[in-house]
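Example 3.
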Amino acid sequence: MAGSELTNVKSPRVKAARRLTKRAFRDQDRKFLAEGPQAVREALRLDDVVVELFTTAEAELRHGDLISEALLKGVPVQRASGEVMAELAQTVTPQGLVAICRFVHTPLEEAVTSRARLVAMLAHVRDPGNAGTVMRTADAAGADSVVFTDASVDPYNGKCVRASAGSLFHLPVVIGSPVAQAVQRLKDSGLRVLAADGAGKHTLDDVDLSGPTAWVFGNEAWGLPEEILALTDDVVRVPIYGQAESLNLATAAAVCLYASARAQRNA
Amino acid sequence: MAGSELTNVKSPRVKAARRLTKRAFRDQDRKFLAEGPQAVREALRLDDVVVELFTTAEAELRHGDLISEALLKGVPVQRASGEVMAELAQTVTPQGLVAICRFVHTPLEEAVTSRARLVAMLAHVRDPGNAGTVMRTADAAGADSVVFTDASVDPYNGKCVRASAGSLFHLPVVIGSPVAQAVQRLKDSGLRVLAADGAGKHTLDDVDLSGPTAWVFGNEAWGLPEEILALTDDVVRVPIYGQAESLNLATAAAVCLYASARAQRNA
C-alpha cells in the first residue's frame, strides 16, 4: 500500500473521486464509482477497469483478498479515513471499499449481433434500483446484452451499480441508444422485438418464445409510449391472475426474461 | 368534510396518527397508516378498514372520487396542512393522502385451508420493500394468501404497504406465524412446501409445479437456515444461466410464483 491514510475530505483526490457521483462529471471523465466488495471483486476481474481503489483500514482487514488482487493487478490502493469514505460512498452504511472504474459499456454494434439470443432493452426506465435489478436478472437469465436507451437512467448511477450486484461487469451493456436505432439493430440481428406492457393483447403464455428475442421494458409509472410499441413486433403482457393492477417493473422483467430462457432451453 | 384544516403538528390527532409509524404502537393500537391514492382506494374497498382519512386541500381536488367514496362510507375525512401531511407521510414526495386503517390480517387457519393452491411464505425477509413487492407479485400470480413468519418484517411497515401497491388489501395475509407451525398447517392443507434457495438440488425446471404449492422465501442476504430447509418438502433454486451470483429476493419470488401459476393453469 503506497502512501499514508487519506484524511482530508477536501483533498484533490477525494474531490476527483467525489465528482463521479454526478452524471455530467462521469461522462466528462468517462469513469464511475463502484462500491462494496461484490462490485469491486467483479470489476477487478476485468482488465484495465479499476483505476484506483479506496479502502478503510477496517475493510482492508476484512477484504484482504481483494486488496491483494488489486495490488497484483497494479491497481493503486489508497487507505482512507472513515470520513473520506463517507464522502465517497453513497450508502448509509458504507462497506469501506470504493473503486474508481473506467466506463465498461459496449457499442450497440458489438453488443447486439446475429449471435444474440436474448437481449433486455430499457426504454424510459428512470429508477436506478429497478434498472440495476433488471441488469442482474438479465445476467442471471443468460441474456447476451442489456441496452439502455437515451431516455433511460444512467447505468453508472451509484444505486444502479449497487442493484446490479456486479452484473454491470458481466455482460455487454449499451448506453444512450436512440430507441428506433436500437430496435432496428435488434431486428437486423434476427431478434423478435417484444414490448412488455400491461396493454399487450397477448399474454406471456400465448407467445412462442423459443426463438431469439429482445424484450423492451418501459417506464415504472406509465409503461411504454405508443411510438415505441409501434416499433416492436408484438406487445406482450404478463398475465395478472389476482387483483393486483400490475407488477413492479423489475419483477415483470424477471418473469419475461425467465420465460424466454426456459422456452429457448426447452426448444 | 367536518371541521377546519388541521395545522398543528403537535395536536393529539396528529400525534395519534404519527405514532403508527412505529411497530410497537401499531401493535398496541391494532392500526396502521396507508399512504397515497392507490393504497387508500384499495383500503376503502374493504368494509370497516379505514378509520380516518387525512388529505391536503390539493389532494382533495385531485382525488375527489376517493374523498367522496370515503364520506359515502362514513369515514371521517380531515383536511390537513402540508406540514401536518409531511409529519404523517413517510415518503419524500407525499401525495397528500394518508389513511388510518385497522389491521387487516387473517389467522393462519382461515388463510391456509385445503382450498389453497398457491401460497407465498416469507421467512426472515427483513427488507420492507422486498416484502411488499412479494405481496404484490403473489397477488398478481393469483396466490391464495401470503404468510409472514414471526422473524419477518412487519407488513404494516409504511414502505411495505407502499411496495405492495394495494395488494395488502387484496389477499389474506398472515402475520407472525412461527415457521414450524405455518409449515405444518400448509402441509396439513395438502400443499407441497418448497423452499426457494440457491442451495437447492433441483431447479425450477426440474420440479412438477402443477399441484398445490407453498413457496418459502428467505432472507435477502443469507437465504434460509438449515432448520427451515429441513422442514420443507424440497429445496428448489431458480437456475442461473449467466454469471450473476444470485437473484434479488423479489425477482426470484416472481419467477417461482409465476412458474407455479403457469404450471397449475396448464395442468
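The domain at 108-266 of chain A is CATH 3.40.1280.10 (Alpha/beta knot). The mean pLDDT of chain A is 94.
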